[in-house]
Amino acid sequence: MGDLPGIVINGASGRMGRMLACVVRESTQAHLIGALERPGHEWVGQDMGRAMGEAEMGVTVSDDPLELVARAHAVIDFTAPAASVEMATLTAQARVVHVIGTTGFDEAGLKRLAAAARHAVIVRAGNMSLGVNLLVQMTKRVAAALDEAFDIEIVEAHHNQKVDAPSGTALMLGEAAAEGRGVLLDHVADRGRDGITGRREQGHIGFAAIRGGDVVGEHDVIFAGAGERVILRHVATDRAIFARGALKAALWGQGRKPGEYDMIDVLGLPRE
């Protein structure tokens, strides 16, 4: 175990934090050395496994990242933008790989992540699954092949506890479609329609978000033309695919040069 990369999970009590703990525990390529939660959280001071209602893992949930980050090879982080940005400062100082699945960063937050990436590896993606990243590449190609006579709509569905919309994956797909069309997403995105909105703007990319139940994640990219539609779809049924992808990213980042990377880099997929 001592020779395996040590993984710290930031946001231990969250859906992804718990899944990550299980995936890392079962891995033969890494081991869990730490779990972090915000100060005052009820899990702090408890064994991670016991806090999850399972067998002990031998890792106590902490609210102090300094000592854990100093011992880590990688931090996997599915939390909130402010928490991930603060963690990036620590991982940059320690030259530790930082895998970020958090979404919803503003421009200021992205600038701070870029500054941290000058000193350490940051792998950031709105979705860590192989299938979704293939879908991103397909979306870019189809958008490039079909002109503005085909309207692009992105529909996503998630569980009722998700706090952001559109999802980070939906925005990834929107960026890919915009790139395929040679435009900036900010200039063509329709992120909400309500009331008398007027007719659809040609060339715009629409988003719709569905929230309900325990849906893990569903994404459709619809290219709607006159008399025909092309629909690209990905359905996630097990959150473990994201945890496995995040662990793969943490291992891939070992020994890399500092910089900002994404899952396209990790998976070695062509960008064109």
Please explain how this structure is put together.
Helices cover about 35% and strands about 25% of the residues. With about 270 residues, it is an alpha/beta fold. The protein folds into two domains: about 5-125 and about 240-265, Rossmann fold; about 130-235, Dihydrodipicolinate Reductase, domain 2 (2-Layer Sandwich), CATH 3.30.360.10. The chain has a seven-stranded parallel beta sheet with strand order 3-2-1-4-5-6-12, with helices on both faces. It has a five-stranded mixed beta sheet with strand order 8-9-7-10-11. The relative contact order is 0.16.
Our count of domains comes out at 2
What is the total tally of β strands? 12
CATH superfamily caption of the largest domain: NAD(P)-binding Rossmann-like Domain
Mean of residue pLDDT?
95
Cα separation of the termini: 39 Å
- Net shape: elongated
CATH architecture of the largest domain: 3-Layer(aba) Sandwich
H/E element order: EHEHEHEHEHEHEHHEEEEHEH
Alpha plus pi helix count: 10
Instruction: Report the CATH C-level class of the largest domain.
Output: Alpha Beta
Proportion of strand residues: 15-25%
The biggest beta sheet is recorded as: 7 strands, parallel
Strand order of the largest sheet: 3-2-1-4-5-6-12
CATH T-level fold name of the largest domain: Rossmann fold
Low-pLDDT runs of 5+ residues are: none
Class derived from helix and strand content:
alpha/beta
What value does the Rg take, in angstroms?
20 Å
The proportion of residues forming helix, as a percent range, comes to 25-40%
